[in-house]
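Working notes for the structural subgroup meeting. M.R. asked for a predicted model of this chain before we commit to crystallization trials. I am recording the input and output together here so anyone reviewing the notebook later can reproduce the run.

Input as submitted:
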Amino acid sequence: MRKRGEKDHPSPVLAHDHVRDLLVERNGEVGAAGGAIGGAAGGGVPGSRGGASGGRTGGRLGARLFTRVTGLSRSLAVPCTDDAVARARDVAAPLLDEAALPRRDVASPLVLVGMVGAGAMGMNSAVVQLVWHPGRLDVTAHALEGIIDQRTASGAIDKLEEALTPFLRTG
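Returned structure, recorded in token form:
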């Protein structure tokens, strides 16, 4: 379902609904962590368990009802080398096993899907999809945004670009 103001941005690897589900689940995990801390402070171990359960449910529900998915793409002049791929995997914690990803054509030797924390203390999560082509890397990031746009997708791509700066080809 498309919400008002949602930016139509194609997802190169995963279906749009799959990207949204990944982001909603991540929001639930963050809610569970916060709920567990608050519940433990008020009720010990039982409070921690209850707080985690309530926080997870609230995080998922809030993400589904009050956010939209935004996306952004950028091409980087990064060749597909073992060192560059290892650095990208360090920054974008892999979400899916490469064998589980949809098949790509022969011109795309490598596809990675991961999660990047952007924003203050990396609290905003973005799903990044990296597709290497001969001589370049196409990075697409999608994130959940509420009423006030945090530009999380842009921040995630900036974080990847900064980490891959030593591998950028110039000229």
